[in-house]
Amino acid sequence: xxxxxxxxxxxxxxxxxxxxxxxxxxxxxxxxxxxxxxxxxxxxxxxxxxxxxxxxxxxxxxxxxxxxxxxxxxxxxxxxxxxxxxxxxxxxxxxxxxxxxxxxxxxxxxxxxxxxxxxxxxxxxxxxxxxxxxxxxxxxxxxxxxxxxxxxxxxxxxxxxxxxxxxxxxxxxxxxxxxxxxxxxxxxxxxxxxxxxxxxxxxxxxxxxxxxxxxxxxxxxxxxxxxxxxxxxxxxxxxxxxxxxxxxxxxxxxxxxx
Length: 258
Ligand SMILES: NC(=O)c1ccc[n+]([C@@H]2O[C@H](COP(=O)([O-])OP(=O)(O)OC[C@H]3O[C@@H](n4cnc5c(N)ncnc54)[C@H](O)[C@@H]3O)[C@@H](O)[C@H]2O)c1
Hints:
The structure is a single chain. The chain folds into two domains: 8-186 and 225-251, Rossmann fold, CATH 3.40.50.720; 187-223, no CATH class. The longest helix is centred in the middle third of the chain and has 29 residues, at 102-130. It has eight helices and seven strands. Helix 1 (17-28) crosses helix 2 (41-55), helix 1 packs across helix 8 (226-236) and helix 3 runs parallel beside helix 4 (102-130). It is α/β, with parallel strands linked by helices. 42% of the residues are buried. It has helices spanning 17-28, 41-55, 69-79, 102-130, 151-170, 189-201, 206-215, 226-236; strands spanning 8-12, 32-37, 58-63, 84-87, 133-138, 176-183, 248-251. The model has no long low-confidence stretch (mean pLDDT 97). A seven-stranded parallel beta sheet has the order 3-2-1-4-5-6-7, sandwiched between helices. Bound molecules: nicotinamide-adenine-dinucleotide.
């Protein structure tokens, strides 16, 4: 029997990047996973099937706009009993704080923070009732340190760690844990696209772009692999995770050690 057999998981923002890797890791361990994202279900069907085939798991997909509270309620109703909740969806808006449009700030707060509050408040009563639960909030290195030209991201990722601690303390005498993952630069399409765009804009060659990228980031000077972050999420769902709660766990190649 696989370790997460009989558990049901919900992963938000799961169509690509880390969410997809976490879905695959949980499904491969036997969890029944519902993925959710902005892509319409029909457009995601081939991907969903491919993921089922590669993991040998059971995976469902549902479209939901997490900026919309009504969509979240519908998503949580259709997900049913959620034992493992992974709040992974994200919006990112770049620019100096005075140039960020208020609608960009609002979107970051809605998706990166408020949506997590809603999914947790919907999922938690059932977890407590069934005497087991794992809440994993995907924060970031930018939840632990500051950074320029991404005030909405930095603010929400810090706040998500605050929410994680509050929930963990409220659940401390129950078998429900709540933790935040704080990855450094992870090679997902979102990051790859930004680097490729910079190379295209010129004048620097890819090696120079990467050199400048690493100069202000993780000392290991290599990307984190999404599968490794996913493995950490799966580890938290195993028995060794029983007493890990309220933690903000870096996987950042020593970036936060600087
Ligand atoms: N990639 C990195 O280097 C890195 C580093 C640290 C933390 N993280 C965190 O990991 C998580 C995943 O990152 P990623 O790089 O895979 O991101 P990504 O952009 O590839 O995936 C995020 C997903 O969220 C979805 N999303 C955005 N707005 C939404 C909305 N309103 N409703 C529903 N879904 C919505 C997007 O469609 C997308 O599929 C994020 O929380 C991010 O902050 C990533």
